Amino acid sequence: MPHRRRLHASPYLLLALTAFFWSLNWVTGRGMAGHVSPLVLAWLRWLVALATMIPFAWTEIRANWPIVRRHWRSIAWLGLWGMGVQNAFTYIGLQYTTATNGVILNSCIPVMIVVLAWLIYRETITRVQALGVAISLAGILAILTRGNFSALAQLSLNKGDFIVLTGMAFWAAYTVFLRHKPPGLPPLAMLTCCGLVGFVLLTPLAAAEVAFFGGHVELTPGTVAAIVYVGTFPSFVAYILWNRGVAEVGPQVAGIFMHLMPAFGVVLAWLFLGERLYLFHWIGIALILAGIALTTRGERRAIPEPIPE
Fold first, then answer.
1. In this predicted model, what pLDDT tens digit does every residue of 14-46 receive, in sequence order?
2. In the chain, N or C: fewer CB atoms in 10 Å?
3. What is the C-alpha to C-alpha distance for residues 148 and 88, in angstroms, rounded to an integer?
């Protein structure tokens, strides 16, 4: 019989799809403002995600239960930084800022990853990668300042922007800490266990929001569809693609693909929320894409060991 080659998608394609799914999550989260309270939305997101994942992951979790039990602290640590609470910051911030601002500020993550990797593990990046980061950041600044870089000195963040940035710091830490994933634990089993950690952390927060801060859910076809979406593609499919991409190209190169989110996000926000798209947006997007091209070209040979399958 002829040798059958295993299909292998480009890690860059996987990371680009991840950016698209997460960009639409920002637009969905902003669209739900006033219809579903933020902590309840984050809780429902992981409820749906776990209901989707557990049927596929249960066999893997049972088969690898000794690993889960032995490394539960590492799993809890990753779940703390990457799931649940990080999503809560996103949805709370979107109560006070636009989806366009959210996805733009989201592109601070690559810089945060580089800084955290240097602070914690003393990692370095190549000169070409550094140039790619700088060009991508120039694109972000072009959007933040509306094409007027002199306005940067007067730039101030509203409450929503600050909350969003806090959530981005959590995600950057999750990406850096992925190297501590328990060895031998399949990606889907790890994701499900971390998602359960996030769900447990969110449960008392969502309950307190409902009990004391007017938390609510408007059950309409639109809100139900939105909850199903955020619980499947951004929470399940995208995390699998992200973890695979990080394993193959490393956290610093993977982090640069977060710069695609403004490119996707501003267009999606314009299409679905009526947020305006200006010339400086297009200039920023062009710079962002140029930065990604340089960063992937400057990828270092030494990358973290791949996540076991």
1. 999 998 998 999 999 999 998 999 999 999 999
2. N
3. 32
Map tokens 């639409």 to a residue: 24
Residue with tokens 């394993």: 247
Say if CB 37 and CB 209 are below 8 A apart: yes
Q: In angstroms, rounded to a whole number, what is the distance separating the alpha carbons of residues 72 and 230?
A: 26
* Neighbour count for residue 37 (Cβ, 10 Å): 23
> Residue 223 corresponds to which tokens in the numbers above?
């809100």
pLDDT at position 45 is: 94
pTM above 0.85, yes or no: no
Hey, what amino acid is at 218? E
Structure tokens at 256: 């640069």
- Return d(Cα 298, Cα 283) in angstroms, integer: 23
Per-residue pLDDT tens over the stretch 223-244: 999 999 999 998 888 878 887 8
| Distance separating alpha carbons of residues 303 and 299, to the nearest angstrom | 9
